[in-house]
Amino acid sequence: MSCGEPHETDCSEVLDHLYEFLDHEMPEGDCTKFEVHFEECSPCLEKYGLEQAVKKLVKRCCGQDDVPTDLRSKVMGRIELIRAGETVPEQDVALGDDAGRPAATAE
User: Fold this and answer.
1) Considering the chain, what percentage of its residues have pLDDT values greater than 70?
2) Are residues 56 and 84 in the same domain?
3) Distance of alpha carbon 18 from alpha carbon 21, whole angstroms
4) Are 101 and 95 contacting, i.e. CB atoms less than 8 angstroms apart?
C-alpha cells in the first residue's frame, strides 16, 4: 500500500513494521520516523488507528487469559521464520504440529 506521495519513510516500510511500533519494540529513532510519517500520511494513520483499536479490543476481551507457554513459543518461532524470509507451509499453519490430525474447528 502506498498513498502515492513521497515520504522520507516509505509507506510499505511503515506498514511492514506497524506491530513493532504498536508494541513499542523498535528503537526510539525509528518511532520518531513513524510518527512523522503518520503526520504526513492519512492512509497509514488510518491503518495505524485500526490496528491500534483491534489490539485494544483483543486486550480487553482476552487480556485476562494466560497464554500457554508452548503456544507462545510456536507463534514466536513462526514470526522469526517469517522475518527471516522463510515461508511456513500452509499445511503446517492449518494443522499445527499434529500433521496427521485435522485442525480444531469452532463450534
Assistant:
1) 79
2) no
3) 5
4) yes
